[in-house]
Amino acid sequence: MRYPAEQFTPEEKALLTPHFTNLDRPVFALVNLPETVKGALFARYSRYSGSVRRLYLDEFAADAPAGGRPFDAEEGARAAGLYERVFVGYGDDSIAQVGGAHVACEWVSNILTKVLQRGRLAAYLEQSTRYIPYDKALPDGGYRFYRDDRLGPEFAAAMDELFVIYSRSLGRVEEWAAERWPRGDEPEAAWRRSIRAKALDLLRGLLPAATLSHVGIYASGQAYEQLLLRLMASPLPEAREFGAMILTELQQVMPSFVSRVERPDRGGEWISYLQKRRAGTERWVERLGLGRREEVEPAPSVDLMHVEGSEADLLAACLYEEAAVPEPEIHAQIDRLGADERAALLAAVVGERANRRHRPGRGFEALRYRFEIVSDYGAFRDLQRHRLLTVQWQRLGPDLGAGVPEEVREAGVGGEFERALEISRNEYERLTAAGFDDLAPYALSLAFRIRYVLDLNAREAMHLIELRSGREGHPTYRAVAQAMHEQIAAVHPGVAGAMKFVDESTEPRLERMMSEIRTHRKRVAAGVQTSDS
Fold it and tell me: What does the buried/exposed string (b/e) look like for 140-167 if buried means 16 or more CB atoms within 10 Å of the residue's CB?
């Protein structure tokens, strides 16, 4: 197809070139523009008959710095005015979806990372306890954990002791792992990294939820607005503090997107609503006696609580987009098929999956599973990041117990691990007795268990189970994924069978070895120097 090519004068090209990646093709990117200007340009699409490059010339170029310079984060009066009229004045929130920003949040606790990452419509990257040792002190001294003077010197002393045990155990577990899995014909650098990763995996349960991490966020203006409201309504002082800091930074790069947050009649009312909603829920929990921990033997568990839909529903949904009849007629035809024909149909709609990234279509979303899970907090942290599903979690506490990995005992540090858990539990109980119920979870090690719900459709279940059961995954969440697959197989064997990349092995091993070898080969192929080349 020959696309229309707009003509620009030399003067117009000079204005456009710094901000558009090309001037003669139908696909291009906007660069060197504030997020508010980008959003305003797209927002005008619905009411402007011309192209966005012509729109820029007509309505926005006058705001641009002289000489084709980048805007240096200035919004421009016209873009800000458009947002004031449309976004704030008329509440057209879709405008706030077409501009975004990158924000780094550093030195945040593992408790706060879950609040930051709760929103679905954003991208997050987080420092991993699986790959980074936490045995080094901060630049100004002390280990990497959240500090609050209100928690008293006892809290800092308890956290220091947890990190001392972690740091002291790390070398011993590495030595044990090196003897348990001696180097074969794999590259030495890959082997050493996998030994370190094994030790970090086994000992991450020692780290407290107060452990500090770094989180990178990319989100739209709308997603940031919702994040800020959650943070500012939170009972956690750390959350409110970071909410204020994130708002300050966003006001420098796209102030119009977050202008409602500080308005009493907008953000103020929202925050009040969220706080009152939480308070009302807490009152009913207390009235119904739901805040008491049941007297049961603590143990990890995965329970399929509810199933919605059948494999026939899935088959009908998979056929729907290619069919030309109403859904009841599709169901009627499927009802006439025998078991072998249904199996053949399911195989056809799933297709030949060469790897786990090849997934069936949205017909798999016709089925829904609701799992209630009890696992250690470390595994929950990883599973919570699957944001397209529904994740709900209860407050972290010590009553569900904590486990000591058997390999930690084999390495000879099981006693130290247990001592760390006791220190952690005692500090939690001291904080709750002092009235710090919301802050007490900071003291708990990641090995303590938490109860949560994963509510997801079959398509997302395939993604989560195949990814998290992989041989390179952490053993605790691998066990959860494997149990989910087993329980789906009991009700929908065809769906479970379509998940052909589930790793069901359970034997102890160096989980990261194959990944490290692949990385090593890529580095060698790219000519990157390695320590054993």
Answer: eeebbbbebeebeeebbebbebbbebbb
